[in-house]
Design brief:
The chain is an alpha/beta fold. The protein contains 9 helices and 5 strands. The protein is elongated. About 8% of the residues have low confidence.
Amino acid sequence: MHTLKKLAREIHRRSVWQVLGAYALICWVTLVAVDLASAPLGLPLWTGDMALVLLLVGLPVVTATTVTQGGLPWLRIEDVEDPNLLPGRTPEEVHVVPGRHPMHGETLFTWRNAILGGAMAAALLVTSVVAYLTMWGLGIGPVGSLMAQGLLEAGDRVILVDRTDPSSGLEAAAEALEQHLARSTVLDVTASGVAADAAGLDPVLDEARREGVDLVIITELAEGTAGYSVSARVVSVQRGQLASYAETAGSVDEAVLAAELVSTRVREKIGESLRAIRAQ
């Protein structure tokens, strides 16, 4: 607690721009650390997005606290002397905002509350990641992997169906999606020999039944009004659709990256760890 008070007093001595600059640096370091830790730790794909959201939420809190505690830039209270050189007066007495200050009074925007709020945000991020990975590994809820739920076993064969229009110009992205799925280390992904059109999947499901396969992955890349879409569905012959994922892209090149992201989500849902996928 003493360290927390010391940190709060030190922040109080800084200007608005100094505090915001320091916060921007903290945000950058945090996001870089999350990005570097994602691959070796197998963090969920949304970890970076959640960290960014929490940091953005903290920005107005830090700004309001800086202004409230130190005043507006042209009303800021400056220390005329080093508080350590003022005998008989505590740092709290030196740093209190005088009653004549327009922002004098009790407020929730204190540095102690801001620092505690940051610690709670970090705890929320860590707890969310741990809870997600636990549910995924144990097959609990909608985030549970299919293998953990007992719907698949390692080495099972999966039929892959591509419904991309050959005239769409997305052949490279469709091929990247197929190759990325085929690199699965837990399943045997085989391209379907039966054409699947928009009319339905009955021919493909019939093929799966004949081959003794329960799982089918249907991929589709298409051009829309706002760009390109990349989607994949995981369908069980016995249980129907189990999962569906989609991404958008602004160009053909971006569609390749979107295809790899969709494939990553499909493979994670099946039961392959993100650490193993990213290691490839």
